[in-house]
Design a protein that fits this description.
The structure is a single chain. The protein is α/β, with parallel strands linked by helices. The chain has 2 domains: 175 residues, Aspartate Aminotransferase, domain 1; 252 residues, Aspartate Aminotransferase, domain 2 (3-Layer(aba) Sandwich), CATH 3.40.640.10. It is 40% helix and 12% strand. A 5-stranded mixed beta sheet has the order 2-8-7-6-5, with helices on both faces. Strands 9-12-11 form a 3-stranded antiparallel beta sheet. Helix 5 links the parallel strand 3 and strand 4. Helix 2 packs antiparallel against helix 11, helix 6 runs parallel beside helix 7 and helix 8 crosses helix 9. The protein is globular.
Length: 458
Amino acid sequence: MKLPFAESFKIKMVETIKKSTREEREKWMKEAKYNLFNLKSDYVFIDLLTDSGTGAMSDKQWAAMMEGDESYAGARSYYNLKESIKDITGFPYFLPTHQGRAAENVLFSAIIKADDMVPGNSHFDTTKGHIEFRKAHAIDCTIEEAKDTTIELPFKGNMDLNKLEEVLKKYPKEKIPCIVVTITNNTAGGQPVSMANVKGVSALAKKYGVKILFDSARFAENAYFIKTREEGYADKSIREIALEMFSYGDFMTMSSKKDAIVNMGGFLAFRNEEDWQKCQMYNIMFEGFITYGGMSGRDMNALAQGLREGTDFEYLETRINQIAYLGKKLDEYGIPYQRPAGGHAIFLDAKKILTHVPKEQLIAQTLGIELYLEAGIRGVEIGCLLADRDPETRENRYPELELLRLAIPRRVYTNNHMDYVAAAIKNVYDRRESITKGYVILKELPIMRHFTVELGPG
């Protein structure tokens, strides 16, 4: 008899979570101005808002924290992290930051100026926000197939090389500070990028004299998909694949709260010393001294250990199988989502579920609110709210995909929780015809509004 799949960890500590009534949730949602970010965590039963900083650290990570060196300069923890980053990514220089968006802030302060063009495969919210805040332009070059949630492709997060070359031809290299390769492609549904595509991007970058930046929050999950889906990589380790992948880049940013499984932390890494030195001033201004940035010594130790654990194949197999498990449950119920199941989340296709809600009334946000009211489950909108307004016309941008992301924290929930989530989605899906109205914006910030926006019924 073939043995069934089993998780590659056992549980040592638990945290109590409590259910609530529909009446309570309706009250709390109204008080939160219909913004899921404004809900108190105690009001949430299963929290799938993000997989960023919400994972469960291991015994080895907690032990590493106890050995953290809190010296202001030159701490042992810095050198532990430096060694881990170099071993796994190959980048010899790095700057620690408190999280990924801080790394973007430091790097973009040094390399991006007004009217620059930054092509990439679906820049995520903070990346695009930092680009547009500097009056530059983020140009999406993702493959067209990513916009059709029904298509099954092994590497749906790929860059369209023809689109990319059009940008590189149109603008002088002085106007293109870098090409952003996001691994995995979060906005497109947690979809991976193939090694062949990375090589193609690299060839174009060299041809036109432009640098490559890897947005690397989920690089290990991307490496897992390359190992399991791309010809020629089945016998390579995750770390071997990561080293090859990063060898094509000039720098990388990382929100370590994802694949390094820490609650807070990030870094910026460089291929050459000149780029590293160019960013040091901004790191000192915005984050802290170059050997601690925005991090404590104990957190750097936990991050160094987390990078090693996050690139373990058995851990990744457990992690990604849980996403696939939820996807299969949704398949049983006929619920549309971005296919195939991504590396860190299920992205529900809100347009196909709530067909009667007008786009002006925030379709994916409406689905998120309905799921919370149904069962106390919190997801996050990847749609019009996240897309922000056009910086020039100030009109709402309506992306082709309106998705509700259900991001699964690492080593936190069991498959029983996934069964609960799937059943709740089915309940909303079964009454979808009765949901005809959504929500409108009452108050918003000019950039990255989705975090603090206030809404009212449409």
